[in-house]
Protein 1
Amino acid sequence: MEKDFIINKSLTYANIISSVVRSVNCKLYLELGVLQGHNIKEVSKNCKHCIGVDMDDILEFRDFEFHLKSTDEFFKVFNGKPDVIFIDADHQFEQVKKDFINSLNCLNEGSVIFLHDTDPISKELTEQRFCGNSYKIHEWIKENYSNLNIVTLPIDVAGLSIVNRENDRRILKI
């Protein structure tokens, strides 16, 4: 990646997710794909009950509930109602789609789903070891869920999408 891209280092997906977690008064946060745990550590400052799911245990932080298993295995037994979900596990479109559907099915009213790796900044980032083809989820959601709002932001080098239900807009509750 030899292009000159301007990346705002202070505007990270962890900052954005944490802001939304505060805004919706999140009681339960679910993160699919935690890696070392940097993102969930930031979010846990604003939410008391955080759950992380990953198939590898390379965590540097342990101050949240952790499930060492695939997201498919996790959703078979999970019965919680998260207020915010961050999907950043497998980067193949078909698995992102499964994770999204499972997340949508358990999402609490008035809640938000975040998807990472949805707007890679270069072709190199579409390789499996980076973002894969997870960026296809944006168009798939638009084509299959007319009742959802989705916006994809050019955050960092991989992008971040935000999804919520149209009927969950706060103004509709007034």
Protein 2
Amino acid sequence: MSDQNPSVRPLLVSFTKYGGKNLIMNSLHKLKSDGHLFKPFTVVHDMTVWERAQCKDKLQEVRTKAYADGSGEYRYVLRGQPGRMEVATFRIRQ
């Protein structure tokens, strides 16, 4: 929530099937690249306190691995659903 504009509020959207949520989350890049209309919106997974803590720990693990890999040959990213995220390693094509 933004401190500058007190009228900004979060909106929780629920789907009856998990596939609908995945479709939306996988298509967010299209909304962001389509124009300025959707740029101010942020869409994130609704996570519990435990899931947020785990995500933060995993993100720190990604940053540590990326920093330790001085070669720049690999890319480290988080993959998976909230609560079950894993660090994935990809070789950068050169």
